[in-house]
Amino acid sequence: MKAIFESFNNPEKEFVDFDAMGKLATCDNLVQKSAEIVEGVNNIWYEYIPKSYDGTKSVPLVVQVHGGGHDGKRWVDYTIWHKLAEQLGFIVIYPNSIEYQMWTCTDTDIEYLYDLIKLIQSRYNIDKNRIYMQGMSNGDMMTLAFSMKHPEMLAAAGFLTGPAPEEAIDGERPVGALPLIQFRGEKDVNWNLNPDTEDVYSVRYEMNDLNREIWLEANGITGLPALSIVGRQNFLRFKGSNAPIINWEIKDMGHREPAESAQIIWDYLYSGCSRLEDGSLKLENPIKNIEGDNDLVVLSAGGDKIYKKDKVVSIGSLSEGCAKIFHPSDPDTFFDKPLNEMYQTPDLFAPAEFFNAAFGAEVEYIDSGDQVVITFNNGMKVEMFSKSPLIIVDGEYRALKKPSVLLCGAFYVPVGIFCEEILNKHVSMADDTMCISGHFAQIGRYTARIIKNYIK
């Protein structure tokens, strides 16, 4: 047969609407239910009952609260709670808001969810000590309103991408402790922005701070958090004498619910939280516990300390002993346009004592401080010289991308460059804050903001 069509050229670019691809695993056994829970209203919710449920033993309950512009049924497409429910044998319900596609977060909404949970308990064999709630965006705000007033009904709560503004919280505070996980996308900044906004992050990040800080007293949190970064996932676990708070951030993510959020919430929090018969919290090790990374340090421009696992460590005793970003002056080049040549870009520098604070290395000054010898725990010896990119590593001459600098008695080293090129570490930056790690780790801007408050 003769070909009658010409072949199509493969385009170099293809435009795809990723935002239209947020749906996850389908849910085949979802059942719609309704009842007059609020007077005069036919309230609708959706239930997922795992195949293993036969009513002979009590099972946990998860209440998943949809975001604005949605309802319970449509929100099922954006979570994997039903998949986990089938694997682990718990029940999930997805209530519709009273108002059309929107939670008002008033007492009416709060009591609606309270009475709905009571109704589910009367119909199924629910473990009343293992009831959890999680909401996204407007559902985050609804979960906050409910959990502040009725923490005694829940064993833990999850809040995703929807911090409530101060005017909505209106001075209210939780009446009791509750284990929490609060997810914040690094680039979730869409709140009251206008073209004149100088810092597009500050408004949203201040709301994030407030939504965590209102729980500090109730949860008994006074100490430093444990820091763990796994790829783009940033975790800070505030232990608390009464209950923990986990701050979870994903690098580069905006206003959306992470596809794996149910798995993270269950593994890192819900799996270790329950209530005893007297109403007190029982906290055990969850499936995955956040204890902090032993191979990770954070430093920040203007700070004279570093953050290691769950501790703050001083870099050195010099008053100048703080990390700085050096911006090069305009260099003389053969070409009059900037190319970001290696000497033309700013970098974070820190005193040589950083290597002692971060890695326990010995630091020795020679020649009135113009030369430094650093001996690491594995025996590797590195000689560095001020005003020179040249270094000597175990007798071998090598060069860094930028030279070290001697200023006011402090020998500044381009520590990120050194750790990448000589120590084979992974280095990431956010908001003038550097994370140096022995594994792939990308620090998020909001996590950097929190850590900066401890080390500056």
UniProtKB/TrEMBL annotation:
Xref: InterPro entries: AB_hydrolase_fold, Cu_amine_oxidase-like_N, Esterase_phb, Mao_N_sf, Plant_Biomass_Hydrol_Est
Keyword Aminoacyl-tRNA synthetase: no
Domain Copper amine oxidase-like N-terminal: 348-433
UniProt keyword terms in alphabetical order: Hydrolase, Signal
GO molecular function (one): hydrolase activity
Protein's name according to its UniProt entry: Poly(3-hydroxybutyrate) depolymerase
GO cellular component: extracellular region
PANTHER family registered for this protein in UniProt: FERULOYL ESTERASE, UNNAMED PRODUCT-RELATED
Coiled coil: none
Domain of life assignment: Bacteria
